[in-house]
Amino acid sequence: ENKSCDSVEPVHGGDVAVRSQTCDENWAYHDASVSRRLRLFHFLFEMLQDPSMAHCLSWAPAPPGVFSFSSRNKDQVAALWGQRKGNKRPMTYQKMSRALRNYARSGQIFKVKKKLTYQFRNNPKISRRSSTKLKYSCNNISKYLSLELK
């Protein structure tokens, strides 16, 4: 089965939703009250926890916390992220990767020496005050990564 995330459409009224049989409808949902506080690394972690999104973004076998983008679907992940944030202009992987590089400067996510591959820091220190939409807090990320280390 060839899955893709290429059917993302805006919905009138300010919200956006995925219009595809292959992508979860909640990935591009936008709640204007939380868009400013939603962080890319939370969004990526949520996607990584959803097995139905493995064709777009997946955990690497080792070491713990390492994930990679699918070369075929990296732009679709970026589009979902842009719509989830409520951007009016389309998000591209190039723009999203700039945010990932900024995370590297602050130590939250590191670039791994492999194409389209990154690693979460073991102990993220970012506040989760942001959103009821987020399923995973930074503490959950840390716990998940520490379990993977064992």
From TrEMBL:
GO terms for cellular component: nucleus. Residues 38-121 form the ETS domain. PROSITE patterns: ETS_DOMAIN_2, ETS_DOMAIN_3. InterPro entries: Ets_dom, ETS_fam, WH-like_DNA-bd_sf, WH_DNA-bd_sf. GO terms for biological process: cell differentiation. SUPFAM superfamilies: Winged helix' DNA-binding domain. Belongs to the ETS family. Binds DNA as a monomer. This is Transcription factor Spi-C. It comes from Poecilia reticulata.
